[in-house]
């Protein structure tokens, strides 16, 4: 096998490209909408280098799995520990208790290298709350660490069974094909899972490993090598320009930057693309730059400066400074100190350092964010994030086909409330408006499942949630309703705007269908959706009185978080949207509900008079948020709708 130098400037330069496009993407620089492909490039580089370490050790007969793990910890942990410690210190002074609680939780997940699982469980990489997560970017470190745990075991086991390169190549290729197949399937149905989890990302690192196994530098004419390298960097630039946050990722599209990185590594060629001083400077500091850039991005959002060009420019400069300081003061010294120590002292030193950060993070988590650090009004606003239905976990279904049928009030069924989480967010107010002693409101709600009989969810069978069966729930509720007395009315509350034209780019195809599936959210799809709302409402109205509630205004920002921050800094606290924007988002829903009213007399409940005035819909009242996030009314906010709900029971 051809020996390679211990340092390759082309790899260092490729790191520079990867970190540069990621940073520019996260800072929202125009033209870098697909800059997240830098992470995929990092994965390829990592797979190349780690496979090289393992294979060389096996060939030379001195490979040690514990030493491999320790070397990775020496490389990754010191700078990460310093970042986490500084963020915890910063958070004590500036983060509200819910934010501080989340930071403490994420510090623990990051240092245990399971943050990718945590963030997948919470939501998606591109979701609204992502800029509240100071350590979101550590998901990729967790994926790499999990790969590091498995790769040496896989290659060592294969070597024990059948020493030699052919077996290693076969194992790497087989694992790559399995992972790539999983990536294709999971990206199509569960894009958030595909983005975060190892089994759909491993193929990118295994691709780098296969490049290492190709071994010798290719014997190409200089001109051919030059053009191939230019082509590879052209593919990277095309990926950055063509893809964006609406692209389902990774899937087959990720093959474009992965193949480009593979080609660059295979060519093993220093050039103007990789060997410049700037590229080498960025490459040397790529890890620290990656660590620090995202917290700076979050800080700009926290200060509401992320849309200001000068602030963005300053944020990029600050990232370069912090990355440089981390490289000089943390990475280099720790590498030198830990390199001269024997395995056991190095391991104990890292464990001690990690415990010094993990223990405070655990305290923050156990103490629910350490309340009492801000004025009571500020913390009250922040605490609205947790002011949700106390029976939500018990009564709001998220798996199976049946609802627990929780009763709020007495045992006599006075009204059925059906819908998704927006219905679950107002059920206590509805019950409070019910005046009859001994009577109650029944909750039939299901997570992420608009109650529109006849609707089928494409992803039911492959949902990330065990036994998630939205369509089955709708069928169960529709059938169960047939057995109930017609005197029990039905109120339907759904978050229809989630499927509006404004949000259609979040999905390549609608996640539900009625008579047929659609490749995108076209006008035809919305017409069929609106017809389904009208038809199903009128079918239900044949047996009982049906009420349809207009959509709740959605603020587009996390109201408790933003309002409490503004209060802490003495800024204007009003959070609102215009009625014009509300109607633009919900026009198709209103039209469908009006059509149902005109056809069969279903009654319409309109929350706007209670939540909006003077042309705007507000997220707070008297200094207190009305929402517990960006779109769900809190237990305080839903009480503003008591007069509207009282109309329902007066009519009965």
In short:
The chain has 25 helices and 13 strands. With 652 residues, it is an alpha/beta fold.
Going across the biggest sheet, name each strand in turn.
Answer: 1-3-2-5-7-9
Mean pLDDT: 91
**Largest beta-sheet characterization:** 6 strands, mixed
- What oligomeric state do these chains adopt? single chain
Q: Would you give an account of this structure?
A:
- With 652 residues, the chain is α/β, with parallel strands linked by helices.
- The protein contains 25 helices and 13 strands.
- Strands 1-3-2-5-7-9 form a 6-stranded mixed beta sheet, sandwiched between helices. A 3-stranded antiparallel beta sheet has the order 8-11-10.
- Strand 12 (620-621) and strand 13 (624-625) form a beta hairpin.
- Helix 2 (37-60) packs parallel to helix 6.
- The longest helix has 32 residues, at 309-340.
- The model is unreliable at 1-5 and 460-464 (pLDDT under 50).
């Amino acid at each position: 096998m051809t020996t390679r130098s211990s340092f390759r400037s082309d790899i260092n330069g490729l790191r520079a490209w990867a970190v540069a496009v990621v940073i520019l993407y996260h800072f929202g620089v125009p033209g870098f909408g697909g800059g997240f492909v830098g992470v995929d490039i990092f994965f390829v580089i990592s797979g190349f280098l780690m496979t090289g370490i393992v294979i060389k050790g096996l060939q030379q007969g001195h490979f040690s799995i514990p030493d491999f793990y320790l070397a990775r910890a020496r490389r990754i942990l010191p700078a990460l520990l310093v970042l986490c410690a500084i963020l915890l210190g910063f958070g004590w002074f500036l983060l509200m208790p819910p934010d501080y609680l989340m930071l403490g939780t994420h510090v623990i997940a990051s240092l245990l290298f399971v943050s990718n699982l945590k963030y997948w469980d919470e939501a998606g990489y591109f979701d609204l709350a992502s800029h509240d997560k100071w350590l979101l970017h550590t998901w990729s470190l967790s994926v790499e660490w999990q790969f590091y745990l498995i790769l040496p075991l896989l290659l060592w086991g294969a070597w024990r069974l059948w020493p030699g390169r052919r077996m290693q190549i076969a194992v790497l290729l087989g694992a790559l094909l399995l992972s790539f197949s999983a990536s294709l399937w999971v990206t199509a149905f569960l894009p958030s899972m595909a983005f975060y989890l190892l089994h759909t990302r491993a193929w990118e690192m295994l691709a780098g490993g296969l490049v290492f196994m190709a071994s010798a530098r290719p014997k190409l004419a200089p001109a051919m090598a030059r053009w191939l390298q230019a082509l590879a960097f052209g593919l990277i630039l095309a990926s950055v320009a063509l893809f964006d946050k609406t692209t389902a990722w990774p899937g087959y599209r990720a093959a474009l930057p992965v193949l480009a990185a593979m080609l660059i590594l295979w060519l093993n060629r220093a050039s103007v693309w990789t060997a410049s001083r700037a590229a080498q400077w960025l490459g040397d500091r790529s890890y620290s730059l990656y660590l620090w850039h995202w917290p700076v991005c979050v800080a700009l959002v926290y200060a509401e400066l992320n849309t200001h060009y000068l602030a963005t420019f300053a944020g990029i400069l600050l990232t370069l400074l912090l990355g440089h300081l981390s490289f000089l003061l943390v990475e280099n010294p720790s590498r030198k100190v830990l390199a001269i120590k024997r395995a056991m002292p190095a391991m104990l030193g890292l464990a001690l350092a990690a415990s010094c950060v993990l223990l405070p993070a655990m305290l923050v988590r156990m103490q629910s964010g350490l309340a009492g650090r801000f004025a009571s009004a500020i913390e009250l606003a922040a605490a609205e994030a947790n002011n949700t239905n106390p029976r939500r976990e018990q009564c709001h279904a998220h798996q199976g086909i049946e609802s627990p049928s929780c009763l709020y009030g007495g045992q006599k069924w006075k009204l059925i409330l059906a819908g998704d989480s927006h219905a679950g967010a107002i059920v206590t107010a509805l019950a409070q408006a019910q005046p009859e002693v001994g009577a109650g409101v029944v909750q039939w709600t299901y997570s992420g499942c608009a109650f529109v009989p006849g609707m089928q969810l494409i992803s039911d069978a492959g949902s990330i949630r065990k036994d998630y069966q939205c369509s089955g729930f709708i069928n169960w509720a529709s059938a169960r309703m047939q057995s109930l007395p017609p005197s029990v009315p039905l109120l339907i509350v759904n978050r229809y705007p989630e499927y509006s034209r404004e949000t259609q780019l979040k999905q390549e195809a609608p996640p539900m269908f009625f008579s047929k599936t659609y490749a995108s959210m076209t006008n035809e799809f919305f017409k069929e959706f609106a017809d389904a709302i009208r038809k199903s409402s009128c079918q239900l109205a044949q047996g009982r009185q049906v009420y349809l509630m207009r959509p709740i205004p959605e603020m587009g920002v996390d109201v408790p978080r933003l309002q409490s921050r503004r209060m802490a800094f003495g800024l204007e606290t009003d959070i609102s949207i215009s009625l014009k924007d509300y109607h633009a988002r919900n026009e198709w829903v209103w039209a469908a509900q009006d059509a149902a009213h005109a056809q069969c007399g279903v009654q319409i409940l309109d929350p706007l008079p209670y939540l909006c005035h003077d042309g705007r819909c507000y997220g707070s009242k008297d200094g207190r948020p009305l929402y517990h996030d960006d779109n769900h009314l809190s237990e305080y906010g839903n009480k503003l709708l008591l007069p509207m709900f009282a109309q329902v029971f007066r009519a009965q």
